[in-house]
Amino acid sequence: MSNGDDDPADASEEADAADDGGDAGESAETAAPTLPDDATEESLTEYLDEIADRLEAAETEADLDDVEALLDDAETGIEEADLPEPDEDDEDADDPRGDLEARVAELREGVEDARGPYGEDVVDAVEAAAGTVEDTEWTDAGHDDVAAAVASFVAEAADAIDDAAPDAIDDAAPDAIDVAPDAIDGAEEDPEALLDEVADGEETDDAPGPIPVDRLTAALDAVAAAVADAGFDADDDADVIAALLEATGDLEAALDDAEEWDDLETHEQLRAQEYYDVLGHYKDFPVEWAALKEHESRGNVDMILLALDSLQSEFMERHCLEAFERMGKRGKTDDSVEEVLGRAEKRDRPAIRILGKMAAAEATDTLIEYVGEDSNPQLQKATFKALGEIGAPEAVQPLADRLDPDGDTDELVRPHAARALGLIGDTRAVKPLADALEAHPSDDVRAAAGWALRQIGTREALEAVAEYADERSFVVSTEGEKALDALDDETEPAATA
């Protein structure tokens, strides 16, 4: 229904004129009702009944505008009418004014329900379908069905639009190019090329196989833009709008029926993504574990991540993480680091150990935050070792601070800090380690400091440890003797031929 040119304010006056203009049976149109001069509950109810009849007979947007104007008059009449007020103390008392106002509100809803449909409704529906196509993870079979549904819709919609507004598609094509410039090569020279390509289901030279999602959504965006540009009238173009809405409804139904990953059981998803293809004869159960072992041996990081994401049992989660820990650097990819780091950010100790085995420098900042967690010694132990295996120079000072005998760090944790400094191998750690070796009250800390200095391996570090070769503590003297041997190896002259 289209918007008419009639002034709604004149609706009642026109109705009065119609009453005076002769026999109503000879009139092409039913006369509009008039607001009663003597506004009572009965007369206003009768007036609203006449408006309801006029609403039921309305065929155009202009007719509905007239009904809207009559309802405005009715609302004013109800406000000004001298109607009995309900007894506040009686919950069941009649409320004529409230009942009439409720009837007006009901009729207004009827007017809104009767309006349209509009071209904007088509645009909204097509854009919603494009969002579904883009946001859903389709299976291969589902993608094929979606492509076929979009192709059918685009062909039907393009024909309907082209018949009613021949220039709309040409004018709307640049909008589609803005949405997906890389997906619509050549559409700028031939605006209908994209829609023709999708409608025909053609493979492209640069993207053989099924039409990519970005092309499908770009084609839908082009249809939506063309409908908006056409400016279809709800009355004059009612048939076109109805046809487009019917086609859009068919598209929505097809998208609902198309297979997406969430529709599949877990084992079906894994089979579809070839997780089980590595299996020959196997003796381990469940079968997912047997496949996991094979993927680990082959270094198939993506498949281990797939199992970790898909298989929610604690058993498989533990085995997936253990596989990454055993693989170490072989298991390091951007995706695996992102997955494990996300777990480490929740203070997950197995994940922290894995990051160390991977030597994932990306985790350094996160792990350094845990160095000072003196209230969680087990977390500190895992963190110190991981930072050492990563070789993070940024961790030298935070780790050195944990050697302070007057600090709050657990006595059993301090040796791990010393060994981590040795794994990092930064010469800035020589002095704090030498100080710990000299004066720390714990022999375990002193021995760990000696070991760390030997790992750093500079002459200064070795000499600092060698001084304690005759130390009373066996674990400390052992490190001193090894340092002396290393110094002797440095000074021993090379054998002559």
TrEMBL record:
Looking up SMART domains in the UniProt record yields: EZ_HEAT
Q: Where is this region: Disordered?
A: 1-45, 57-102
- InterPro entries xrefs: ARM-like (IPR011989), ARM-type_fold (IPR016024), PBS_lyase_HEAT (IPR004155)
Stretches of Acidic residues bias are at 1-23, 58-94
**Molecular function GO labels:** oxidoreductase activity
Query: What Gene3D superfamilies does UniProt report for this protein, alphabetically?
Result: Leucine-rich Repeat Variant
Q: Which Pfam families match?
A: HEAT_2 (PF13646)
Q: What is this protein called?
A: HEAT repeat-containing protein
Organism equals: Halorubrum sodomense
Q: What is the lineage of its organism?
A: Archaea, Methanobacteriati, Methanobacteriota, Stenosarchaea group, Halobacteria
